[in-house]
Structures are given as structure tokens and as C-alpha cells.
Amino acid sequence: MSVIRRVWLEWDSDRSELPKSVIVKIPCPTAANNTFEASGATTIGVSDTFLKASHGLESKFYRLMQDEKPKNLLVPTIYASEGFDSQQPVIVMQDYRNCFLVDLVKGLSEKQLFAIAEQLANLQVFSIKNRKWTNVLRKDERSVLQLTL
């Protein structure tokens, strides 16, 4: 649903805390429709309303998570997040370039399964202890998501 690119950065400073690269996500209706077609979905296409709501929810989730201390959920750092009301909607985030995809056909190890279960449990604990997330969705975003799910 987005065009996703890794952008390599060059700095005038040698400070090690500055990122060497970031991930840039730009919502794109063409990419979204191509993804749905490739999956064999029977939908006519992704509406602009759904794309706006999806991008908005992702942005809001990351913003909500950035304020959390301690960080029990593994969520990338967000350097910039612009919604559809801006000239260029975009999310610029930490690059987890040292991570890798696991072949799901082969299956996951016990250690990997426990790591996933721990993150799901942390998300559940967050949603129970912190009710801020219930106010994140605007009424129009709720209705769009209910229609598509």
C-alpha cells in the first residue's frame, strides 16, 4: 500500500548515533492496487479513503508508541510522519537493516515463537494498561475500517 525505500544518509558529522540509513514509506494507490491484484483479491481497488485511513492509523500508532517508557514493544523510531493533510504524506523510520525475513514454509524455531508471543503479550498489556489508543481513531477512520473489515 506504500512505496517503501531505503535511503542512505551522509552526515557532515562523525557522530555514531546518527542513522546511516532510514526507511521511507510513501502511501501510493497504485502500489496498493497492485498488491491486492497480486494476492488474487477480488476487490475492485483500494479507495483513497481506505489508503488515507491506513496511513493515518500507522502514523498515529508509531507516535503513540514513541511516547512509551519503558519500550517493551519493538517498534522502530519514527523520525518524521506526515499525514494526508500535508503536501507529501510520508513516514520516515528507523532502518532495521540487520533484520531478516524467516521462511515461514520451513517454520519458526521455539525461540522465535516465544519472541513473537512475548511481543503480542506486551501489546496486549499495553492496550489494557494504556487507554490512550482508544482516542486515536477519528470517527471517519473507524467507519472506513469497519466497512473494509
TrEMBL record:
Pfam families: DUF1679. It comes from the Eukaryota. It comes from Ancylostoma duodenale. Signal peptide: none annotated. This is Aminoglycoside phosphotransferase domain-containing protein.
